[in-house]
Design brief:
The complex is a heterodimer. Chain A has helices at about 30-45, 65-80; strands spanning about 20-25, 25-30, 50-55, 85-90, 95-100, 110, 115, 120-125. Chain A is of the alpha+beta class. In chain A, helix 1 crosses helix 2. Chain B is of the alpha/beta class. In chain B, helix 2 packs parallel to helix 4 and helix 2 crosses helix 8. The longest helix of chain B is centred in the C-terminal third of the chain and has 19 residues, at about 200-215. In chain B, about 45% of the residues are buried. Classes of the chains: A alpha+beta, B alpha/beta. The interface of A and B includes residues 10, 82 and 115 of A.
């Protein structure tokens, strides 16, 4: 795998309704309480945090400009809490997923290959 | 789609791309594993991790696909035979050889989307399944056995098991038991020179590749996330085990869903 990083999901924690704020751009976005809760969990369990949301269509999804802008804003908080772990963003469609990952000691984000384990298995590979 | 794979275009317009993007692991390159390597190369898999510490011996030539008498003379590694075979079929395939215990190549294997286990011993099976579960990798195990019934009578049997994260495991199916592992440990883990023949190897390997293809390029809607097939080699029959329907409804309590990743990992920020 070279210097590749493998992130394995260990748990999924949905946000409660009160952890969203209304947004003119995106409809709803997570609020500071939600980010704080994710940071607390990351600190306690020494785990990566991957923010997950869904785009309501089938096929390979992509990140919107808002997704990337917001991700870049809250990613430093995750690194302040858990600096040795990679953190990221994931967007789901009805049947596929895409991810961006920020790695410790590296500047900027990188597009990640994603394997969705199930039947059938979906796999999106990023070619070097 | 290229002309090479035009006859398997029913697997989907994007099937060639899906298969080219996949990384599969084959652990154990004897009669079963060598068949699987050959088939994966034919169907167009992009990357293979092949693991086996052994060299080709004369007693392998009754079943080891791709091996020659010259390999016996040269003491060629089985991984090199597999690599040579795969590249001869598909020069573009990427093959990484782990010519050692598979555990030494675990960093390569953890990047696989599926691992095939074609090993002789029960303890190796258990370790492979445990490894695959920790990294959420589907694991397909094949095995065959010849039992001596006495009076010059023998019976051939075998199994193919698809072990998916969240689904029943080989312990759920009774394929792996503490008694089997203890018995093997008493023999110091040696599987010994068990009888092995090419035609059951081929049947079981083909079924394993079929399960793999159903996972990644399904050609009908009844996707299989779990499978336990039993082989009756005396009657040339491979069919779902009667246990399959029973254990399919069971919740596996041998693997805990949040026990994932490297078990020795610690972080000290």
């Amino acid at each position: 795998m070279g210097d590749a990083v493998l992130i394995i999901p260990a748990a999924y924690h949905p946000l409660a309704d009160h952890e969203y704020v209304e947004s003119d751009e995106a409809g709803a976005m997570m609020n500071e309480d939600a980010i704080s809760r994710a940071m607390q969990r990351a600190y306690r369990e020494r785990m990566s945090v991957v923010h997950v949301h869904e785009h309501g269509h089938a096929g390979k999804p992509g990140f919107s400009g808002i997704d990337i802008r917001e991700g870049r804003q809250f990613m430093p908080d995750f690194f302040n809490t858990c600096p040795r772990q990679p953190h990221g963003l994931m967007v789901l469609s009805h049947d596929y997923a895409a991810a961006l990952v920020w790695r410790p000691g590296r500047s900027g984000d990188c597009v990640a290959s994603v394997t969705v384990v199930g039947a059938p298995i979906r796999f999106t590979r990023v070619r070097p | 789609m290229s002309d090479r794979h035009s006859r398997q275009s029913f697997l989907g317009a994007d099937s060639e791309e899906i298969l080219r993007d996949l990384q599969g692991g084959v652990v154990g390159l004897g009669g079963g594993g060598s068949h699987i390597v050959q088939q994966l190369a034919h169907i167009g898999i992009g990357t293979l991790i092949v693991a086996d510490p052994d060299h080709v011996e004369d007693s392998n030539l009754n079943r080891l696909i791709g091996a020659t008498a010259t390999d016996v003379e040269d003491g060629t590694l089985k991984t090199l035979v597999a690599e040579r075979l795969a590249r001869a079929i598909n020069p573009k395939i990427s093959v990484t050889a782990v010519s050692d215990r598979w555990q030494e190549g675990h960093m390569h294997l953890r990047g696989c989307q599926c691992i095939f286990g074609c090993v002789d011993s029960w303890s190796e099976r258990e370790q492979l399944e445990r490894f695959a579960r920790r990294f959420l990798i589907p694991y397909i195990d094949i095995g065959m056995d010849v039992h001596d019934l006495g009076d010059r009578e023998f019976t051939i049997s075998g199994q193919v098991f698809l072990s998916m994260p969240g689904q029943p495991c080989m312990r759920c199916a009774g394929i792996l038991t503490d008694d089997l592992l203890a018995e093997e440990a008493r023999r110091y883990g040696a599987a010994g020179g068990k009888p092995q023949v090419i035609w059951p190897n081929g049947i079981l390997a083909s079924a394993a590749v079929g399960l793999f293809m159903q996972l990644f390029t399904p050609w009908h809607s009844s996707h299989q996330g779990f499978a336990y097939l039993e082989y009756d080699g005396d009657n040339q029959v491979l069919q779902p085990s009667p246990l399959a329907e029973i254990i399919r409804k069971k919740t596996c309590d041998h693997f805990i869903s949040d026990e994932v990743g490297d078990p020795l990992f610690e972080d000290n920020p």
